Amino acid sequence: MAKEKKVDRRIQRTRALLRDALMRLITKEGEDAKRYDEITVQDITDEANVARTTFYLHFGDKDELLFTTMRDIYEELYEATHDNFNNSFLSDDEADCIATDFEHVKEYGDFYKIMIGKRGSAAFLAQVREYLAESIMEMTIKELVPPDHPTNLPADMMGYAIAGAQIGIIKWWLDNGMQESPQKVAFMMQQLMKYGLVWGLNVSPDQIQTGA
Prior knowledge:
Layout: H1 2-26, H2 41-48, H3 52-58, H4 62-81, H5 85-90, H6 100-107, H7 109-115, H8 122-144, H9 155-175, H10 182-201
Helix pairs in contact: 1-2, 1-4, 4-8, 6-10, 8-9, 9-10
């Protein structure tokens, strides 16, 4: 059992080295800075100081490394906020709004500026949009109403619409120098989502499940 834990820690350490190396390469500035699509597996392994064969033991390519990293981060954010989501969503008090996703964007602002900008990746945006849409359908919409409740709009359509809106809001926030706090931006998106989503779900705010 102890040996298994040691192997797990080694795997985690190697993946962290590769993840951090890719992040550094993406956000690198200067004449030798590369677009995401120009970064190679060799670049990543050189930066991480690990062998190419080690890379391929963990990931099929750089896209899998990036998408796995982002999925793990998003899932951790969701786990940290899930229990309080409904009460936060129902409140019109900005202080009650959960802002962990926008706090994450601010922490990795240089990364997001590049990845949703000219040096970024259309594949990355597509993957993030799809993940957000699925998460919104599974973790948000299904939490708000019973499974047999008739809605005005298809749940998957609302999921993709909100996911696209979130990416657009993040882009707007970054382009404007993140002048508003993560809390403020999260609250503005929540209000936009809530009052549009409520109509789409065909419910009034007092009909939404509170999870109590």
